[in-house]
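User: These chains co-purify. Model them together.
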Amino acid sequence: MMGRDRQVAGGIRRRMVVAAAMMMTAAAAVGVLPLSAGNAAAQEARKGGTLSIILQPEPVTLTPSTNMAQPTQVVAGNIFDGLVAYDFDLKPKPALAERWEVAPDGLTITFHLRSGVKWHDGKPFSAADVKWSLENIWKTIHPRNKSLFENVTQVDTPDDSTVILRLSKPSLPILSVLNGVGAPILPKHLYEGTDILNNPYNNKPVGTGPFVFKEWKRGEYVELARNPDYWEAGKPYLDRLLFRIIPDAAARAAAIEKGEIQYAPYNPVPFRDAERLSKLPRLKVDTRGYEWLSPLLYLDFNVENQYLKDVRVRRAIAHAIDRAALAKIVWFGYAKPAISPVPSSLVTFHNTKLPQYPFDVKKAEALLDEAGFKRDANGVRFTLTHDFLPYGDDYRRTGEFLKQALKRVGIEVTIRSQDSAAFIKRVYVDRDFDFAISYNNAFPDPQIGVVRAFWSGWLGTGTPWTNGSGYRNARADALIQEAGVEGDPAKRIAEFNEFQDIVLGDVPSLPLLELNFFSVYSADLQGIVEQGDQVYSSLKNARFVDAPKAN
Amino acid sequence: MLTYLRRSAAQLVFVLLGIALINFFLLHLAPGDAAQVLAGESGAATPEYMEALRRQFGLDQPLYIQFLRYLGNLATFDLGYSFRQSLPVSELILQRLPATLLLMGTAIGFALVAGCSLGFLAARRAGKLTDTVISIVALLFYATPVFWVGIMLIVVFSVILDWLPVGGMTSVEANLGGLALVGDVALHLVLPAVTLGLFYLAIYARLMRAAMLEVYGQDFVRTARAKGVRLRRIAWRHVLRNALLPIVTTLGVQLGSILGGAVLVETVFSWPGLGRLAFSALFQRDLNLLLGILFCSSVVVVLVNIAVDLVYTLLDPRIELG
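Assistant: Joint model of the two components:
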């Protein structure tokens, strides 16, 4: 079992170190290496090995074409390459596309593809695959990209390694979603002419990425193996990725602590366990690798509610909440107060000169008095029901925190819990709620993950995660539409600045916290977090190293 | 006997029809549908995307059409298709069946043997120290939440002592085959089976003790004693056999729930059983899958009940099936 596996691995490791040491001696003899390099050589990566990873919950499908759920993308990022990948500063860097050009008017985007790339079934990857994926997935059934690609009127493929997008109006955010899960490229030869949603390859995906799908044992694990023909020479380092499904949080913590699991992304354990695990020398807790997502926790006010339709009440509630304390107490510091619906990680778009709602109980009370909701004999102004996003204890405790905070200003809160299907129906379909907490990933461009919370165009369609508050503002809508097709980056920034100013003034949805997700991984792993979209990207750089000797 | 079986078969059909009807409409009362859950998990959606999902799932049809389709499928022994998992329901259930049967079988077997032995012992030493200790231990395991026992066993035997794996059913990373694989599964089975078994064990021990003490008080036991039959023989031959009826009844109830699995134990030990499958299907509003599992469970309950009736006649010749 584990023990035996480790011994075998140890054998390989020793041999590698011996080889490395010999090479080093040789190098030192000809005077290439400085003396201090000895330490680095002890950290020499070794090839091979199986990495056990936590996957929670079990994915629905392994193809990110119609399902954007977290576990699907965590696995699929290793199987599918994107046109680009994203750095920590969210700038695109080459992947399947070696380079690209955007015409000055923004109406033509040209991608030059890497040549010699093969699908896992041996067929060559070509521009036709990209064109087919854009036309049949990105533009149509993809839950996030439709609005970004809808102005692409034509896709030209003059040769096998060139893709030219022709747009009727510019769409700059396109360049922010082109990684393997944001704009998945599927093999045209396996999907063309089939029912895409029911294609059997959705569950045994064929990609071009560093790892090849081997087996999905439902309820147990998903297994991927090293792609020996990967286009990036020498990569990946690991032989096998084993995504294990462990539904219980305490069991996950035990498996990590015992070393049965060496990599666990996406808040695999409760914050309290994270604190404990981070103190173990064998483990690391890391909040990098989620930059591409930029998750934001927010409070949606139902603006049709008899109290909440008054902007003064919404502002009062904003003043009544101590967001710094919320981040510290409920989220154990894995969050920071948000001041705009556009998170600060979206540096170009985040506006710092906005209406602010500092924690101020007196001001909150004054605003409520002014709105005409005086305290009654019991000190209560009115009662609201709060629905929290049923994604675990952190959200429930956030609700309890809000209840306490609002009680101080005379608003009584009843907390209501339900499962996620019921939550979505209540908030987005039936609109039968007072105020609710939820979270959205903003992604690198507000067009992708932010504006949907304020855009009134889809009100009445019952679409989840769109405009929970029921907010309608003609100017905000106009700005959203203009920015969507604006070709001049500076003008877009100005439009988003004005947009943030309006929606934060009206505050139909109150940004609470910028969340920091965390991963836990074994300290003898290297290259596990290398880019801004790491959790949704591949582990091609991950490798085991010899643990440095204690001095 | 034949009349009984024929009547049972007829009843079976009606019971199952009723169960299908109730399950179907009851489950459709739950707020939200599978498309909303999927969109919820995606964290983003467009009206077009929702429509595509609903069409894929057949949710764009009126409810009665969905029900008629479901009945039509059942009539042809087709449990339907899980659109969420893109697999036929029967295949999903069959995938999980071996793990479920292994866990439940081992746990119930262990509980039955150990529980009955302990109960037998306690009844023979009623009022003495052995009895008190057994009763207290049984009560303790009965009263402790199963998931807590599970976690504690993991912490002790897996994390601290490092004797047994934390969870799962096999050591996938080791690529085992043949006998080594059997041994590996057995190692993985120990903790979940013991956790679940300890809970059932308590039930059997208490039941056995009570049933035996009741039989001890009856006239034929006194007669046997008066005749000079040895105490050991009385316990085995006269008391135990007569005390088995309630045990068989309980066993029947537990075997009936075997397909439901044990959600908590399966969750704590990442055991790939049917309980977890049903539990997640409920939250995901994967109604075809959930209906399939419930339907199979109902069939098992009905069949086990018939079997229990038959066993009664073997154990107690006075009982007749009419």
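The mean pLDDT of chain A is 88.
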